[in-house]
Amino acid sequence: xxxxxxxxxxxxxxxxxxxxxxxxxxxxxxxxxxxxxxxxxxxxxxxxxxxxxxxxxxxxxxxxxxxxxxxxxxxxxxxxxxxxxxxxxxxxxxxxxxxxxxxxxxxxxxxxxxxxxxxxxxxxxxxxxxxxxxxxxxxxxxxxxxxxxxxxxxxxxxxxxx
Length: 162
Known about the structure:
By secondary structure, this protein is mainly α.
């Protein structure tokens, strides 16, 4: 197979990871591993959260796929690991840097997509317990959050012209 195939396959895995993340977040993090995720919704003092353990939980299969795939020259397995790693990097940037601003690299943005993901995540965090949550994904934002951001922008424009 060609290099293009393996790169394309890695990007396919990256996109599939959004669905896997949604399912994991809803049924695992807000399910039997709530004890690891709880401190993300009910903030405790300190920088580190038990929730940060999910970084390792997702990083291990990525690392194993890359390492074992390379050792055995099974490049589609390397592509799976690379796709998971790319999603992990996107997760870090979007969730830790842009949404929660645990790292103060980008603090303000007028970008509509960033506003929409921040609003969707805010709606997710309005629930302090594991039940009754909403918006479990990270990169794909439901239409109602886009609409909310658009309404806010229209209100701002209307106020600015009066």
